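Moderator note: this is an archived Q&A kept for reference. The question asked for a predicted structure of one protein chain; the sequence and the answer are reproduced below.
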Amino acid sequence: MILFRWIFSKRRGAISYDSSDQTALYIRMLGACVIFKQLFSRDVRVRSQVGFEPDRRGSHPYLGVDFRTLHSRAESAGSIPARRIRRLFSFQRHLLSSRLLRGAPHLNPLHILDEDYCGQAKCMLEKVGSWNFDIFLFDRLTNGNSLVFLTFNLLNQYGLIELFQLDMVKLRRFLVLVQEDYHNQNPYHNAVHAADVTQAMHCYLREPKLAQSLTSFDILLGLLAAATHDLDHPGVNQPFLIKTNHYLAALYRNTSVLENHHWRSAVGLLRETELFSNLPAEDSLSIERQLGSLILATDISRQNEYLSRFRTHLDEDDLCLGNASHRHFVLQMALKCADICNPCRPWELSKQWSEKVTEEFFHQGDIEKKYKLEISPLCDSEANTIASVQIGFMTYVVEPLFAEWARFSDTRLSQTMLGHLGLNKASWSAMEPEASGSSEEGESEPGHATDEPSSRVLSQGSQES
C-alpha cells in the first residue's frame, strides 16, 4: 500500500498545471483514485469516496455510477481475463529479452508463440499505409497494444523521434499511459479506435498535397492528436453528461465537454511524462494549444461549422498550404475525416465498427431507460437498428464531409473511400428495406427532409466521434 501511495504521489507531483487548470488536474486525479481503489477490491462497481459520491453531483441516482464499468461484462467462472493474458505475454517478452542479454539459453518453449506473433505484427507495420489495414488483427498480434506499437512506429518512420530529440523512455511511458487511459470496456471508444484513427491520419498525411506542404511539426501534432483525440472517453455522449449534471459538464460549461476533457487529459500526460521537456517552454505550450485546437475540431456537433468553412475555401480556391493557419485547418479536417472514416473502410472492417458503435449507443439508451431519462436519439434499441443508424450517419454526416475532402484531395485514396462508402451504404440498405424506401421518399422532397434527420444525427454530440 505504501508503494502505491508513493507512485500516486510521484505521478501527481509530475503534473505542473497552471492555476487555471487546477480543476482539470483534480478531475484527472479522481480517475487515478478510482483505478487504485479497484486494485484492492473484487467489486469493480465500488464507489470511490473521492470521485463518485452521488450527493456531489445532484440527486439523480445514475450519477453515482462509475463510467469505467458501464460496458464491462461479467467474466465466466474459470476464465482468464484478457488483461492477465497480455500481462503474461509482456512479462514473458521481458524475461526472454533479459535472458538473451545475459546469453542464457531459452528455458520455456512458449516464447516461440510470442516471437511469432510479434513477427507478424512487424510484417503488418510494413503496410501501415494501406487503407485495408486491419487494426483488429494488428491489435490481437500485439496483445492489445496496437496504439502503442502503431504510434511509436509512425513517429519513428517520420523521423520525429530523432528530429525532436524525444527521450525513448519518456515516449514509451507516454504512449503506454495514453493507451491505459482509454476505457477498453467501451465497445467503440477505446484504444483500438484511437489506433485506427491514427492509422487513417497517417494515410491522409501521405496524400500528395499534404506530404508536400506539411512540416515535421504539423505531422507530430497530427499523429499525437489522432492518438489522444478520445482519451478517457466515458462511453456516453455529451447530452447525457449534461442532462445528468455530470461534473465534467459543469467543469467545461456544457461546451465541447468530451473534447475538452480529451485535450486536458492529453496535456496532463504530456506534462506528467515531461515528453517535451527538452523543448523551449514556448514551443511546448504551442504544442499543447494546437493539440487542443485539433481535438476540439472533432466535436461532431460543430460539423456543419467546419464543413461550411471548408466548402467556402474550396469554392473560392484560396487554401494556401504555405500558410500555417491554413495547414492547421486542413489538419483539423483530416482528423475529422479520420475520426469518422469507418463507413469508408472495406465492408469487413466497416461492419465491425458499425456494430461496436451501435452497441455503445444502445448501452446508453438502456441506462437512460433504467433511470427514466429521455432516451437520446439513435440510442433506443427498440426504435433503431444498426442499419438505420448507419444509413442516417452515412447520409447526413459522412458523405458530405468526404465529398468535400475528395474535392480537396482528388486522389486514388479519396475515390477508394467514396467507393467503399457507397457499397457499405448499399449493403446496410439491403438489410433495412424500410429505411431505403423512406430515404427515396425524402429525396423526392428536397427542402425539408435534409434538415431534420441531419440535426437528429448531430444531436448525438460527440457520441460517434
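Archived answer notes: The longest helix spans residues 347-370.
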